[in-house]
Amino acid sequence: MTWEVVIGIETHAQLATQSKIFSGASTAFGAEPNAQTSLIDLAMPGVLPVVNREAVGCAIRFGLAVGSKIDQHSIFARKNYFYPDLPKGYQISQFENPVVVGGQIVLQLGQGDDLVEKVVNLTRAHMEEDAGKSLHEDFQGRTGVDLNRAGTPLLEIVTEPEMRSSAEAVAYARALHSLVRWIGICDGNMQEGSFRCDANVSVRKPGQPFGTRREIKNLNSFRFMQQAIDYEVQWQINELEEGRAIQQATVLFDPDTGETRAMRSKEDAQDYRYFPDPDLLPIAISDEWIDRVRGEMPELPQAMRERFQALGLSAYDAAAVTASLEIARYYESALKVAGNAQAKVAANWIMGDFSARLNREGLDIEAAPVTPEQLGGLIARIADQTISNAIGKKVFDALWQGQGKSADEIIEAQGLKQITDTGAIEALVDEVLAANPGNVAEFKAGKEKALNALVGQIMKAAKGKANPQQVNDLLKKKLS
Amino acid sequence: MAFTPEDVQRLAKLARIELGSEQISATLGHLDNIFGMIADLRQVNTEGIAPMAHACDVAQRLRADAVTEGSVAQRDRCLALAPEAEAGLFLVPKVIE
Question: What fold, for A422-479?
Answer without folding.
Answer: Arc Repressor Mutant, subunit A (1.10.10)
